[in-house]
Every structure is written in structure tokens, then in C-alpha cells.
Amino acid sequence: DTAVSQTPKYLVTQMGNDKSIKCEQNLGHDTMYWYKQDSKKFLKIMFSYNNKELIINETVPNRFSPKSPDKAHLNLHINSLELGDSAVYFCASSQDMSSTDTQYFGPGTRLTVL
Amino acid sequence: DQQVKQNSPSLSVQEGRISILNCDYTNSMFDYFLWYKKYPAEGPTFLISISSIKDKNEDGRFTVFLNKSAKHLSLHIVPSQPGDSAVYFCAASGRGSARQLTFGSGTQLTVLP
């Protein structure tokens, strides 16, 4: 059973479209995250949610909106897609916000904006 | 401004030899350091970590060394195996209420049979 799953794995779309990426974890964790891996391969935190509450919101355009319907899900909705949004997006989860909690990552969603 | 740097994008090592992956950081507030391993088309998986109160942590073939004065950590893999071929990310987190990881850009390790 996959611990952290993301759908879709690949997403190709046109500029200006709106798209969503879904993330689910079956680990019973309280905290979930979204990361973006850019062209330089850095993994950068975008958002984190703890018990469905937004904890971290890095400098991310308003076009990106996370939604957490419950503790097991953290979806990422992106409006008006731009070329620069092309990247690999990773979802992750951890038991809680403790500094030593291991984060478990999903397989990633490769988004290509044409 | 990259707070965690992995200056070697790639490293090739012969099977059975030691692999040494390096990482430097600039933020003095970092007090917990991790290494993640990533295979193609998969997410990063946790490998080993070290707290700033230690200078060494060992787990089987993997050892992480931390030099706080130099703001440097390294991951040693010995003996290296072909299955260790992957991208290795160094990450760090600091004091504060939010659990936020800052990642390096990764080092591609290739272990040659």
C-alpha cells in the first residue's frame, strides 16, 4: 500500500488553464506539505497543513491554493497556469510538527505548462 | 540565496569503495540535518539524520558527520553498492515552531559495478 500517493503523476496543460493535484496519505499523520522542485532541482516548501490548518505559506503566488478536506488529504489547486509553473510537485506528510519527525514523500507530479 | 548547498552535482564511485557526499549550510539557526535519497520517478525517502548536539550518527553502511564550526556535513556510505545509485539530498531545519525543511540541490551518486 502506498503511504503517500499523488494524482496525476503527469500533467500537461496549456497556459491559462486551471488544474488540481491530489494528495492522500494513509499513515495517520497530522501534518502534510507541498513542495516544488524547480529546474535547478531544489525542493522548496510551498505550504504545510497541520490538522487541516495552514501553518506554512511560503512566498507562493495567490494562484496556488491548497485545500485540506480532512487530515488525510491535501490538494493543490492552481489557477491561470503560467510557463514558470512547470516543475515537479511533491506532497509529503509527517506525524506532527515536531522538529525530528520524518517527512514521507509522494512520488511527485510532473506538471508541464505549454 | 541558497542556505543549503551541495556543490557536487554528481559523484561516481566503484562498488565496494567509500562514497562521500558533502553539504554546506549558511544558516546558524539550523539544528537538525537530514539526508534523503531519491530514485527516478519516486519521491525522496528519508535515509539518516543528525541533531546539532551530535557530531556523528551511524546507521549500518551510512554515517553522517556534522562539523558545526565549518557548517558542513557529510554522508559516508561504505561499502558502496550499485543499489545506492540515486540522487542524495541534504536538508536542514531550524529552531522555531514550524517544521520547515530547506533542501540542497542534490548529488547524483553512481556506483559502478
Query: What is the chains' assembly state?
Result: heterodimer
Round the mean pLDDT of chain B to the nearest integer and report it. Answer: 93
The proportion of residues forming helix of chain A, as a percent range, comes to under 10%
Coarse shape of chain B? globular
Uncertain runs of chain A = none
Number of helical regions of chain B: 0
Please state the CA-atom Rg of chain B, rounded to the nearest Å.
14 Å
Termini Cα gap of chain A: 34 Å
* SSE order of chain B, one letter for each helix or strand: EEEEEEEEEEE
Please explain how this structure is put together.
The complex is a heterodimer of chains A (114) and B (113). Chain A is mostly beta strands and 114 residues long. Chain A contains no helices and eleven strands. In chain A, the strands form two sheets. In chain A, strands 2, 4, 5, 6, 9, 10 and 11 form a seven-stranded mixed beta sheet that branches. In chain A, strands 1-3-8-7 form a four-stranded antiparallel beta sheet, with no helix packed on it. The mean pLDDT of chain A is 91. The relative contact order of chain B is 0.34. At the A-B interface, strand 5, strand 9 and strand 10 of A face strand 4, strand 5, strand 9 and strand 10 of B.
Concise account of the structure shown:
With 114 residues, chain A is an all-beta fold. Helices cover 0% and strands 55% of the residues of chain A.
